[in-house]
Amino acid sequence: MLRNELILLPMLKANRGERGGLVITRKYMEGAAEFAKTWPGPVTSLFEVSPTRTTDLDHIEVTPDEMGTGIEERPGNLDALADRVRNSAGALTYLCREEGPTAKMFHRIGVPLVFTSEYSHRTERQIINATTANPILRIRRKHWMWNAQRSCRASLRISAGLQCSGTPTYRQFHNIKPDALLFFDNRVRTTDVISEVNLERKAGVLAAKRPLRLVFGGRLISMKGVRYLPLVAEALRRRHIPFTMEIYGNGPLEQKLRNDIATRELGGCVMLRGALDFRTGWTAALRDGADLFVCCHPQGDPSSTYPEVMSCGVPIVGFGNEAFEGVVDTSGSGFVTPLGDVEALAARIAQLHSDRNALIEAARVARGFALENSFEVTFRRRMEHMIACSRLA
């Protein structure tokens, strides 16, 4: 029986494709395939299968071992799951209330289980505030969240380890797991980080003091703070700052954003560009046509956007949510403004328009951080940690 197999239990659900394979996101599969390059044995993902697709944009249909890593349907009950994983070397899953019984099962059968975490208690409260208008429903969701946090702490205490995406949960759970791994999720490989030559070219463009090329990219949803973007643009216009703002992505708030841009007569400087392919479109647009990323996230989602933008030599100015503050503290690059304060954010951008050297230096520091936390470097560190927590140690 296998003793060196790594089991991945993704929170992401799959659905059946036309070829009989599982439809999942390319981002997930590339991550699993990268795990498989470092793990000393087979790596298998067990997916719950749903009749509907997720709202992600990068779906692909995958058959077993097609990308160098195994995929299977997750057994439907704990006893069947225990039989499937009993002889594995360890497992990795997402820290959430729903996996509480799973954690107890792994503990009972003696298979090391490592958790990954993203959202701190504070961030979850902020997400509820940003996405839930009904005050009664907001209270109910926060009460459920409080109970879920208690369950997560109990699961952590019996787990073999913890990997924290971003600083918020790393700081929150440090008293339970002082040996937790801190990492910054990101899809940019070392070879795709902006070169020194291209970075110097960007520095020359910035030094010429042309209008600032501002950019935002991500899902157009409440928790990403897209409603603030026209307000920031309007505040910059009042300050007579020359700029353009390009907004990439799509989502349910796209039409509202279009209406706000039109109502505020911002069409000459704020443009919606839609969603781009990550490698051929988005990162290329950042490397070649952006000076500063404007991040209005009203919550501490440890988005992969932060290191991915920095890898393109683009500094970030944004609201001081705990995830962005953690990135700035760790990297030394970026400009933090008070949470939700549009005028302060616009004022900081205005300062940076005048101080191009600050932007150039932030871009250089951002590149160094990106190289230290590139896609393959991050996954290698995660696998080394996973091996240390597993039966192979």
Automatic annotation (TrEMBL):
<protein>
    <submittedName>
        <fullName>Glycosyltransferase</fullName>
    </submittedName>
</protein>
<feature type="domain" description="Glycosyl transferase family 1">
    <location>
        <begin position="208"/>
        <end position="364"/>
    </location>
</feature>
<dbReference type="InterPro" id="IPR001296">
    <property type="entry name" value="Glyco_trans_1"/>
</dbReference>
<dbReference type="GO" id="GO:0016757">
    <property type="term" value="F:glycosyltransferase activity"/>
</dbReference>
<dbReference type="Pfam" id="PF00534">
    <property type="entry name" value="Glycos_transf_1"/>
</dbReference>
<keyword id="KW-0808">Transferase</keyword>
<dbReference type="InterPro" id="IPR050194">
    <property type="entry name" value="Glycosyltransferase_grp1"/>
</dbReference>
